[in-house]
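Reminder: ligand-aware prediction takes two inputs, not one.
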Amino acid sequence: MIAAHDVELRAGPRLLLEQASFQVSAGDRVGLVGRNGAGKTTLLRVLAGEGQPAAGTVRVGGTVGYLPQDTRSGNLNALASDRILSARGLDEVLAGMRAAEKAMADPDPARRDAAVRDYGRLEERLSVLGGYAAEAEAASLAASLGLPGAVLGQPLRTLSGGQRRRVELARILFGGAGTLLLDEPTNHLDADSVRWLRDHLRGHRGGLIVVSHDTELLAALVTKVFHLDADRAALDIYNLGWRAYLDQREADARRRRRERVNAHRQAAALQAQADRMRAKATKAKAAQGMARRAERLLAGVTAERQPERVARLRFPEPAHCGKVPLAARGLSKSYGSLEVFTDVDLAVDRGARIVVLGLNGAGKTTLLRLLAGVEEPDTGEIRAGHGLRIGYYAQEHETLEAGRTVLEHMRSAAPDLSEAEQRTVLGSFLFSGDDVAKPAGVLSGGEKTRLALALLVVSGANVLLLDEPTNNLDPASRAEILSALRRFAGAIVLVTHDEGAVEALSPHRVLLLPDGVEDLWSAGLADLVALA
Ligand SMILES: Nc1ncnc2c1ncn2[C@@H]1O[C@H](COP(=O)(O)OP(=O)(O)OP(=O)(O)O)[C@@H](O)[C@H]1O
Ligand SMILES: [Mg+2]
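Here is what comes back for the chain with adenosine-5'-triphosphate:
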């Protein structure tokens, strides 16, 4: 159970939320929505006890499982399976048992005896914690989220950003907390995993708050909607399912519009009357009262909501390049014993539109990293054609540096632009005024995506390598970015689970992983996208 009373949230100098009071009890499944940068993540952090509200109180009963939007797990040398098991404290017990097993071979008999005693004690502890069944349960959760057994045995360091996120999600679900706080849990999940997650969460007996831009998930899952309205710094609470919420919000907007029109009409009539009466000395006092009443009427209606701001994106003409700016031959890559793919060929022609499809773990992100030159292939070669300029959009915003500001990033991406021009580009990606002085580390998920894309825009790239570019974007920004991509004249290699994104791109060709087969795009492949 979570109860918030008069909570106020601030980010730097900005007020995000004022006087929000609500309660989330067992059985409540809340969808927390609002545009990029509204403060959803900030609110969730506070509820999870990782941040303090500027004012007000948050009371928490029972345990809380929190999946942050940006997962930066601590020890990257830990095994993926241990990370999941750590949610119930099982990882330490199992690590202790592994150490005791080793010590049983010690030449010193006293040490051997101690090891046997340790082992017994740890085994007892293991059975108290649910024992070996728990291990099996963790593995099955992981498998449902698209993490095969082989991946569980790897250290986190070797996992892709998407895989690490799935490990974190598995860990939270395995922990079995009473209240779950999930920030964009479906980022990087394939369609099967999303469906599984939806059903799993529908069966959750405790409370749940989920932040998501995935309207299908919300429609299937939530029983209440909290809308964080950035314009009013208010949390609107709807005790309704998703569809009813949409209707109600629409009706609310209509009512506010009507009230506004009426108030303006009444105020104008009052004002006109007041003006007429003011001419007569005997009625001056009454006239003043009327004018005041008109003012009060206008103050009482809520200001017209600003239409949701969206990025006005246009990619500049790409730098000139040869007929085949980028080609790869015989690429293979393995991590330890895990072979990701072997012998992949690919030719990216000027202006080509290529979609990379493949199941989770088939190596889509790895392929883009090889093409981008941030990672070396085990075999094969990447050939840069004449005039190649790559723009790489990384899945987890790896290209951004937390400590450097928005403007500093732009400065190094486009050193030839004047500061005024740099600010204009940033402005078209909705970074205005003070926003450009923010370090990248404090940006919201959607803001990071926008910054990373802005940096691509100014780079003059003629080959864009895009890894899930629509994750974290609110619907309005997503539409804007997709239509800009559609108009982009350079080549695009796209990895995505987003069917709409593929449709918007109208791809020419497809590369299927892990087989590395390249083919012409056909409509039948569209169904594969969400599965990929
Ligand atoms: N220390 C800080 N200084 C200035 N601004 C900050 C700071 N921390 C956060 N912000 C700003 O607060 C706002 C709210 O961020 P938050 O991450 O909560 O948004 P969000 O609703 O989760 O957005 P998204 O949908 O993009 O994930 C953002 O505009 C962010 O840039
Ligand atoms: Mg967020």
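The longest strand covers residues 14-24. The mean pLDDT is 88. We will return to this case in the review session.
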